[in-house]
């Protein structure tokens, strides 16, 4: 059992960190209400988009561990850009790579890797949040066409997307997924709602939206189960966003404490602050190890629901706690609207809700423990 990064992983981390420091740092924390297209282009030029997708479609062919390594390095500098990086290898692009037909892979994955396309998942509904199986968006067959009706909410980056991975109930009552292009007739977006982090999320409406069989990702009897297995990997992305935000805040708090003097000494030399920094570092490292364990064990098999849920809960809570402590160390300076810490404070909070709430994850953890115990 070796917890050290391989030489290749060290190179990925250092390359991503160098690019982030040189190209993303200056404008980090300025992307609240706009999309960092220029950073997406840089990621594509540096072959960091789609690094977890198959090489034959323009990806890097790496595992989830390497994706998370690059995500951590970039997120430690600019979390908005890290979000773009990881979403290009996880979520809908990974689901298409793992479950999709050759047609879907060729149609969508090269554009994702080139930075010319973004695909978001559309799963939540007004009455189907944590209880996703209660979704009402439905598909009906009409000759060789599929007619999609319903609505989805809280869709991230919808305005910038070219397509959506839409979860829906098929005529046999099984839940599957269809890739729906944004310009498909019958699909409309609302004006969007601004969340606490300042990011816009949209509702999608499907009104006799016509798609075809070749756009279906999966719809057979075990389709929903297969989709949820892929969602376990998505939780690693979610968890690493929290750790990256925490590391970002920790670095700033440590630097601030070492340079801020009160009572003729650096704030970092007060024991109360020393203990905060020690606890922040220990908790971040524990969360990070849980994430990498889940990802490493998923290399040769399906990602574990127990391990990914544990990683998500730990990282969601640690990320928020560390950013909160970083704000406390900064005092009033961290509480100001133009402070990166204030932005991180708002940004990190949403991850405890997205991708399955921490309460639902604890239920899943308990369910797995009752079945199999803890090794």
TrEMBL record:
Q: Which residues form the Acyl-CoA dehydrogenase/oxidase N-terminal domain?
A: 6-115
Q: Return the Gene3D superfamilies for the record.
A: Acyl-CoA dehydrogenase/oxidase, N-terminal domain, Butyryl-CoA Dehydrogenase, subunit A, domain 2, Butyryl-CoA Dehydrogenase, subunit A, domain 3
Q: Which InterPro entries match?
A: Acyl-CoA_Oxase/DH_mid-dom (IPR006091), Acyl-CoA_Oxase/DH_mid-dom_sf (IPR046373), AcylCo_DH-like_C (IPR036250), AcylCo_DH/oxidase_C (IPR009075), AcylCoA_DH/ox_N (IPR013786), AcylCoA_DH/ox_N_sf (IPR037069), AcylCoA_DH/oxidase_NM_dom_sf (IPR009100)
Any one Pfam family here would be Acyl-CoA_dh_1
Q: Which keywords has UniProt assigned to this entry?
A: FAD, Flavoprotein, Oxidoreductase
A Gene Ontology biological process term: fatty acid beta-oxidation using acyl-CoA dehydrogenase
Residue ranges occupied by any Acyl-CoA oxidase/dehydrogenase middle domain in the UniProt entry: 121-209
- Give cofactor(s), names only: FAD
For this protein, the record's SUPFAM superfamilies field holds:
Acyl-CoA dehydrogenase C-terminal domain-like, Acyl-CoA dehydrogenase NM domain-like
Output the Gene Ontology terms for molecular function: acyl-CoA dehydrogenase activity; flavin adenine dinucleotide binding
Which parts of the chain span the membrane according to its record?
none
Which residue intervals define the domain Acyl-CoA dehydrogenase/oxidase C-terminal in the entry?
A: 230-368
What family does the Swiss-Prot or TrEMBL record give for this protein?
Answer: Belongs to the acyl-CoA dehydrogenase family.
Q: What is the protein named? A: Acyl-CoA dehydrogenase
């Amino acid at each position: 059992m070796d917890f050290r990064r391989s030489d290749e992983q060290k190179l990925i981390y250092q390359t991503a960190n160098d690019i982030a420091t040189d190209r993303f740092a200056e404008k980090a924390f300025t992307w609240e209400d706009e999309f960092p297209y220029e950073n997406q282009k840089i990621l594509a030029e540096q072959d960091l988009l789609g690094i977890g997708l198959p090489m034959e479609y323009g990806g890097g062919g790496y595992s989830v561990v390497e994706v998370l390594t690059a995500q951590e390095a970039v997120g430690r500098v600019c979390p908005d850009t890290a979000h773009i990086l990881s979403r290009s290898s996880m979520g809908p692009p990974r689901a298409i790579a793992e479950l999709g037909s050759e047609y879907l892979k060729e149609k969508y994955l090269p554009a994702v890797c080139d930075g010319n396309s973004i695909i978001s998942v559309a799963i939540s509904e007004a009455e189907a949040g944590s209880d996703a199986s209660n979704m009402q968006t439905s598909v009906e067959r009409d000759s060789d066409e599929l007619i999609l009706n319903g609505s989805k909410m809280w869709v991230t980056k919808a305005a910038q997307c070219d397509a959506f991975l839409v979860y829906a109930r098929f005529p046999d009552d099984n839940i599957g997924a269809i890739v729906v292009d944004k310009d498909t007739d019958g699909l409309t977006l609302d004006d969007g709602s601004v969340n606490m982090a300042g990011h816009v999320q949209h509702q999608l409406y499907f009104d006799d939206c016509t798609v075809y069989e070749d756009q279906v990702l999966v719809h057979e009897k075990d389709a929903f189960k297969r989709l949820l297995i892929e969602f376990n990997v998505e939780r690693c992305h979610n968890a690493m966003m929290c750790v990256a935000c925490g590391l970002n805040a920790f670095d700033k708090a440590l630097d601030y404490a070492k340079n801020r003097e009160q009572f003729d000494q650096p704030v970092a030399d007060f024991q109360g602050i020393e203990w905060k920094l020690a606890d922040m570092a220990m908790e971040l490292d524990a969360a990070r190890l849980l994430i990498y364990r889940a990802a490493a064990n998923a290399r040769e098999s399906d990602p574990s629901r127990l391990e990914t849920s544990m990683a998500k809960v730990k990282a969601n809570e640690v990320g928020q706690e560390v950013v909160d402590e970083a704000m406390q160390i900064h005092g009033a300076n961290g509480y100001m609207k133009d402070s990166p810490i204030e932005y991180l404070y708002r940004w990190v909070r949403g991850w405890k809700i997205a991708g399955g709430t921490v309460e639902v994850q604890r239920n899943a953890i308990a369910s797995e423990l009752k079945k199999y115990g803890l090794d």
